[in-house]
Design brief:
heterodimer, A: mainly alpha, Ferritin, globular, B: mainly beta, Flavocytochrome B2, Chain A, domain 1, four-stranded mixed β-sheet, 9% helix, binds protoporphyrin IX containing FE, binds fe (ii) ion
Chain lengths: 183, 96
Amino acid sequence: MAKVAREMVEKAGVNVDQLLELLVKNASAELTTYYYYTILRANLIGLEGEGLKEIAEAARIEDRNHFEALMPRIYELGGKLPDSMVDFHNISACPPAKLPANPSDIRAMLTVLVEAERCAVRGYTHICNLTAGKDHRTYDLALAILNEEVEHESWFSEFLGEGPSGHFMRRGETSPFVGKFLR
Amino acid sequence: MHAPQRTFTPRQLRRYDGKHGRAAYVACNGIVYDVSRSYHWQTGIHWVQHRAGCDLTAEMTHAPHGSDLLERFPRVGVLIPKTHRTDTARRSNTSD
Ligand code: HEM
Ligand code: HEM
Ligand SMILES: [Fe+2]
Ligand SMILES: [Fe+2]
């Protein structure tokens, strides 16, 4: 644990144990999403699926990066990841992004993808709200992740006919916002 | 609308806390919803802070979503404003 780092957050009035529980649950959501998106991406095939494969891949890699970026902050604040990966899976802040019964139903695939991203956007907005002006480092991290989650939501929502999102797919390196936490 | 509405006092609502296989009910703006089948309300806890069995109208203002998400779940009744004294008189409709 980084003793003073935790003390500063406590002194600012944040309930650190509650915050840690949220961070662990969201770290689980990231790693489980990475896993479930692997299966979704593998099934994005054919005329309609192929166009989404690249985007699902960028979202998948960035979610794994989010897990990697959250982990050090959890330990700094005196928290830890569960010993059992089964337990870790089961406490995810968002439901599993399971492959639809009919993977060639492109709308069903997109719905799973966009709902996972929306859960993440809401979750990180909440963590930003809890930490703003109090826990600067967690806030900076949650905001960086939020920036990427909003882009993920945008990419998928366009395909659902919700109008233009103003975004282009990821170009260059993945995780332009979270990258600084990965070095 | 047709059948008489089931009513809950705050104390009666407390029973539906989602623990030990009990149903998870939450109240918002006077309506009681059954969120038992939601992934997000497993064991009656929602996003670390919130507990089933409670009136969460005030908490909803700070949520990163609106009360429309509750409409995905069955309405099971209405919450009567808090009345310690009449609680026992209304016990008859807590049966389940
Ligand atoms: C700090 C407060 C809260 C946070 C951070 C929070 C967070 C969330 C998140 C991230 C979701 C997932 C939404 C999605 O998938 O797009 C969700 C869903 C939901 N929340 Fe909350 N929430 C809060 C307060 C509340 C309150 C007070 C209530 C009830 C009165 C509530 C009821 C629900 C319901 C019914 C759902 C839908 C669940 C489902 O579809 O299975 N939330 N919440
Ligand atoms: C260890 C924790 C708690 C204890 C010891 C406790 C104790 C009590 C007591 C003694 C009463 C008055 C009962 C009566 O008037 O006959 C009461 C009422 C109530 N409690 Fe709790 N309580 C606890 C936790 C909670 C929690 C977490 C909630 C919310 C989810 C809650 C919601 C209520 C409500 C809604 C009432 C009725 C209030 C009213 O009608 O004005 N309680 N509680
Ligand atoms: Fe993510
Ligand atoms: Fe994402």
